[in-house]
Amino acid sequence: MIRTAAPADVPVIHAMVRELAEYEKALHEAEATEEQLHEALFGERPAAYAHIAETDDGEVAGFALWFLNFSTWRGVHGIYLEDLYVRPERRGGGHGKALLAELARICVERGYGRLEWSVLNWNAPSIAFYESLGARPQDEWTVYRLTDGALAELGGASGGRTSA
Is the pLDDT of residue 112 over 90? Predict the structure, then answer.
């Protein structure tokens, strides 16, 4: 049911990314192209990894896209799950749990200390699902993000530079 994504999966991964963005009411923010996803997943220096959930008849039901992070406190890598998505008509069939179980297996096998992800506060079905698996919210932390103009300004000629 779960397999590592292949280059031929990029179009369906891209389509599901857009489906997820629409579900999260942010389709206008989903700018990634198939070419960018291909490069990130299968380029010379992959920055991310993906797994595909399939039905018994080989239909793609969902995907997980993830990358490595690192804990300075634990001194080991972990997995950050960027996207977990199961198509609405396939939800409840165990695909999401199987995708998370595969990532947990990779963590255990490789000695990684954490499997982490974010979920929108309003997404009660997903929160209930994650908690049913033993995941717990990290409510003492607030995510911050720099993008667009603020990122460009801080990363400009005077911002963020150190002398060698």
Answer: yes
Q: Which of 49, 85, 112, 130 is catalytic?
A: 130
The full DSSP string for the chain is -EEE--GGGHHHHHHHHHHHHHHTT-GGG----HHHHHHHHHSSS---EEEEEE-TTS-EEEEEEEEEEEETTTTEEEEEEEEEEE-GGGTTSSHHHHHHHHHHHHHHHHT---EEE---TT-HHHHHHHHHTT----TT-------HHHHHHHTSSSSS----
Query: Is 130 a residue of the active site?
Result: yes
Q: Is the model's pLDDT at 157 over the cut of 90?
A: no
Nearest to 117 by CA among 132, 103, 105, 102: 103
**Would you mind telling me the total number of residues written for the chain in this entry?**
164
Contact 64, 81 (CB under 8 A): yes
Amino acid present at 9: D
